[in-house]
Amino acid sequence: MKLKNLRKVAIIGMGFMGGSLGAILLKKKICREVIGIGRNIKKLKIALQKKSATFITTDLKNGLKDVDIVVISLPVNLIPAAFMKIKPYIGRDTVVTDMGSVKGIIVEKISKIDSNKNFIGSHPMVGSEKSGIKNIIPEIFINGTCIVTPHKNSDKRKLKIIENFWQQTGMRIVKMDAKSHDKYISRISHFPHIVSFVLTNMAATIIEKKKEIIGRGFKDITRIAASDEEIWADIFIANKNEILKDIDIAIEELDALSQMIYLNKERELKNYILNAKKLRRRI
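Now predict its structure.
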């Protein structure tokens, strides 16, 4: 299957990410049909209204008939089980991918049961603190980065199809192994969410009693604290080994910073802040 002949894409899970993907696929005419698959027919009907799908169903067998690509847009802990459920209904040439924020556990489990090498792991590095099909942003993929995490035995043809698929939505492609992905993404995505949650909870009394004094800086750094609790609790547990390492490193950094402040080491403090400033400017 050449991407220019892409006819039918099925998306399992029509929440914010799945709905946004379906909408950009149809808006840019990347495929002819988008099949929205889920358990809640009311939410699926919203996907039709939002033009995120051309057909909706709660039936896997019906929804997966003759599809070219399947995108599993579910919480990380549900993705391997979802792959197992769809296996009987997909062909040898069907390409399956996901949008999970943790890759190691997904690739490890699926590679053991993926006899036809249908699966290629993906992680579009885009999102929002908002959730649900009602809040979709089709353009969120444009100019974003998608990390693709092939397994050592992945089908090269299917890998190329998935790379082209995400590129058509407007994304840049970065390839890496699942272990490296989880290490890097813990540092630049998962741990920052922890910091935002911690800082917001630390300020609970101020938020409840003196929120009028809260400025833009606090609002900026805590924006992602409004993220979905189900999704993020799942991510933290799925990538706990890397996240716990980062928490330990952060404690060491805070201890060092605390000592600089306690001992009035102004020059060291300035250098620490300056180093962060220089690094930030490189992003």
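The radius of gyration is 21 Å.
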